[in-house]
Design brief:
- By secondary structure, the protein is mainly alpha-helical.
- Helix 24 packs antiparallel against helix 25.
- It is built from 26 helices and no strands.
């Protein structure tokens, strides 16, 4: 630095000395000073691309991404095919959320430097944000062929996870751990993928390994969920409590704590935890929990109030619509219940939702719509006696004993112990 400063004392118009001093300042993190030196160099020698590169890199380091892109346009006029310019545009565009522009520049960068792992990693992240998961996987995989890096493995795991390829995540996370066993995130990805695959012991081991490296909320969250899935409520409770020590204002942690307490029959503690979660903001899991507690206590108006909030937050949740339907049934609001179950069936058909829809329509009563629902139910679950018994009873309501009998008989073929079908045949012998 002294040499460049000395040169500038002799000649303040020495562009090379300004660039040299700028790079020294850049390397030690003096980015504002570096910008000033590179800007002076560009002013003195506007045809020299090195000044633009230093100026752009320094602005990028200062998170002045728009300014960095503006410099890159001037740089392009001087040297259109400079690969360093492409890398700057790629990274600055990504930071600004201009993902299509980032993909284009990152592709150019990777094409010009096909052996540069960082170019392929950067392209992978741009693809991922642009929702091109398959292309992201290809780019991250190519980067890892060139050089294994934490960022490459992180991107690959994230892209595979976005596609729901949990087995792929497990394999990639295991490779990542082999490369860097001290990376806590690698164990986190392995843990969540194992959890999604219902390999809960493996998930517990992975999350525990992450915690052995460093304390982190995500691992306590994962441990809690994994223990809860195995009905080890004591361990789940301890994990969520440790999570709350790290993040005392985390609404989801309180909501999940409430579910554990509810499962342990600690109803009052569960109500407090769900309420505490909602003090921090609306969260579906807490409204769902409160709805479940109040429903179990036969406090149906309170259950309804919370389930409606849950539906508002997750309007496309079949579980929310179904839970709301059962509560509306209890309140004898059968038309509203039918509407809720109908939406649940549209979102994610199950025998329980069809049952709720049919019983609600029959209670209105609306025999024709009940008939249609029961017919759809038999098509959906043709190996279950219940929909055929329901169809039989609908025909009873319509005074059509011939069709009623055939459906009751079908139900008994599937389940000889079906009391509903037996009672139906008593009505239509």
């Amino acid at each position: 630095q002294t040499a460049f400063e000395a040169a500038l004392e002799k000649d303040a118009e020495n562009a090379a000395a300004h660039r040299g001093l700028g790079w020294v300042q850049y390397e030690v993190g003096q980015y504002e000073e570096a910008v000033a030196q590179f800007s002076k160099a560009v002013e003195l020698e506007p045809a020299n691309p090195d000044g633009y590169e230093g100026q752009g890199r320094s602005l990028y380091a200062l998170a002045r991404y728009e300014d960095a892109l503006a410099v890159s346009k001037l740089w392009e006029e001087v040297e259109p095919d400079d690969v360093q310019k492409e890398s700057l545009v790629c990274q600055a565009s990504y930071q600004l959320g201009y993902y299509e522009e980032a993909v284009s520049s990152c592709k150019n960068w990777a094409a010009k430097e096909p052996q540069n792992a960082l170019a392929h990693v950067s392209l992978g992240w741009a693809h991922l944000e642009a929702k091109r998961n398959q292309e992201a996987i290809q780019s991250f995989s190519r980067s890892l062929e060139l050089a294994e890096t934490d960022d490459g493995f992180l991107g690959l795991c994230e892209a595979l996870s976005s596609l729901g390829d949990q087995k792929g995540v497990v394999a990639s996370a295991q490779r990542w751990i082999a490369y860097n066993p001290r990376n806590a995130d690698a164990h986190i990805y392995l843990g969540w993928a194992s959890y999604q695959l219902k390999d809960y012991p493996e998930a517990v081991e992975a999350f525990s390994s992450s915690l052995a490296i460093e304390e982190n909320s995500e691992a306590h969250h994962g441990l809690g969920d994994s223990f809860y899935a195995q009905k080890d409520y004591d361990s789940a409770l301890k994990s969520y409590e440790k999570w709350l020590v790290l993040e005392p204002e985390n609404a989801l942690a309180y909501a999940l704590l409430g579910w554990v307490q509810y499962s342990m029959n600690n109803t009052e503690d569960a109500l407090r935890s769900f309420a505490r979660a909602l003090e921090m903001g609306p969260i579906a899991s807490a409204y769902r929990g409160l709805g479940s507690v109040y429903y179990a206590q036969a406090e149906y108006e309170l259950a309804l109030e919370n389930q409606e909030q849950w539906v508002d937050l997750e309007p496309n949740s079949a579980a929310a619509r179904g839970s709301l339907g059962w509560t509306l049934q209890k309140l004898k609001r059968h038309a509203d219940a039918a509407s809720s179950f109908q939406r649940a069936v549209e979102l994610f058909p199950t025998t329980d939702y069809y049952s709720g829809l049919w019983t609600s329509l029959r209670a209105i009563p609306d025999a024709q719509k009940a008939l249609s629902a029961a017919e759809q139910w038999t098509e959906f679950d043709s190996d279950d006696a219940r929909p055929f018994a329901a169809l039989g009873w609908t025909y009873v309501d319509l005074n059509d004993c011939a069709n009623a009998r055939s459906n009751f008989q079908k139900a008994l073929e599937l389940d000889p112990q079906s009391e509903s079908a037996k009672s139906g045949l008593d009505r239509c012998p």
